[in-house]
User: Fold this.
Amino acid sequence: MSSGETFYSPAAEELLRDAGKILEDFKALEDKAANYHRLAQELLAAEQACQKELKDQRANAKAFVSRATNASKPATSKKSDSQLSMTDPKEIEEVSDYVFGIRRKLVNLETQFPRPALLVLQMALGKSAPFALRPPKLRLDYKREYELFKLRLTFIITAFAFCNLFVFPFQYRVVFDALYAFSLLYYYSTCVLREHILWVNGSRIRGWWFGHHYLSVFASGVLLIWCTNTSYLVFRSRFLYFSLYLGVVQFLQYRYQRSRLYVLVALDRAGPMDPVMGDGVHTQQLDREFLLLIPFLVVGQLWQFSHFFVLFSEWMWGSEHDWQILVTGILFLCLSIGNMFTTLRTYLSKRDVDKERRSDVRRRARFGSVGSGGTIRSMTPPPPAVRPLARKR
Assistant:
C-alpha cells in the first residue's frame, strides 16, 4: 500500500462520484448554452437583415403602386412622355390585380417581423426590453391570454360594481369605491401595455382603441382620487349602474366578435393576430348580429354622453365644484364622441361590400392567403415575361 494513496469511506465515495457526474452534466449544459446564445445572435442578425430588406421592398412597392395608379388614370396633356398610360380595361384590371397582390403580400410580410415599440411601451419597460415574441405560436398564445384576461376582468369588475350597489354596506363605501376605481386603473393600464406588445408582434389595433384606453386610464386615476370626497356621491350611483350596463355590452361584443373572427380568419379576411375584443375585426358584411348589437352600443354611448352634461351642470350650477367633476365630465365627453365616431365608421364600412368581397376572393385565390401562423401560402410567382400586345391591323 503506497503512502500517497487516499482511502474514502463508502459514503464519501458515493458522494464524490455523484458530484463528478453533476459537474459533467453542468459542462454539457454549458456547451448547450453557448450554442443557444450563438443561435440567438444569428437569429437577431437574420431578423435585422430581413427588416432592412423589408424596408427596401416597401419603398419599391410604394413606387410601383404609384406608377400603376398613374398609368391607370386617363391620359392628360400634363403627363410627360416618360409616363406610361393604359386604356384597355383588361390591362387595367390585370395591373390592378397585381397591385392588390403586392399590397396584400407586403402587409402579410410586415406581420412576420416585430415592429418598433411605441413610446409608451419604451417608457414603461425600457428600450431594450424583449418585446418581440418568437416563434409565431407564442404570439398566438399571448393574444389568447390577452383575450381571456379581458373577459375575466370584465366579469370581475361588473360583479364588483353590482356588489358596490347592492351588497356592500354603504358606511364602508369609501373603501370599496376606492378598490373598484383601483381595479379599473389596473385593468386599463394592463390592457394598454398588452395591446402595445400585441401591436409590436403584428396585431392590427386601430389608433382609437389605444386612445380610448389612455383616456380610461386617466379617468380611472381621477375616480380613484375623487371617490374619497363627498362630492363623488353626486355621480356614484349613476356611474355604477352605467358600469353594470357596460359590462353586459362588452360581453355581447366579445361573443359577436369571437364568432365573426373565426369566420373571417377561415375566409382569409382577417389575420390570425387580430384580437377579438377591440377593433381587431375589420371588414365584415352588415350581418344580423351586428345590427342587433348596434342599439346596445348606441344606448351606452349616449349614456356616456349624458355623463358630461350631468357633471358639467353640477360643476357650473350645483353645490359641488371640485376639479374632479369637470375633468371626469370632459373625459366622458371625449370617450363618447370617439366611440360614436368609431361605431358610425364601422357601420358605413360594412355597407355595400359584396362586389368588393367577390373581387377580393378572386384575387386571394390568385395571390395566396395567410396561414394560421401568419405565413403566406399558395403564392403565385410574378409573370415570367410580359408579351407585347399584338397590334390591331
Q: What stands out?
A: Residues 252 and 293 are 8 Å apart (CA to CA).
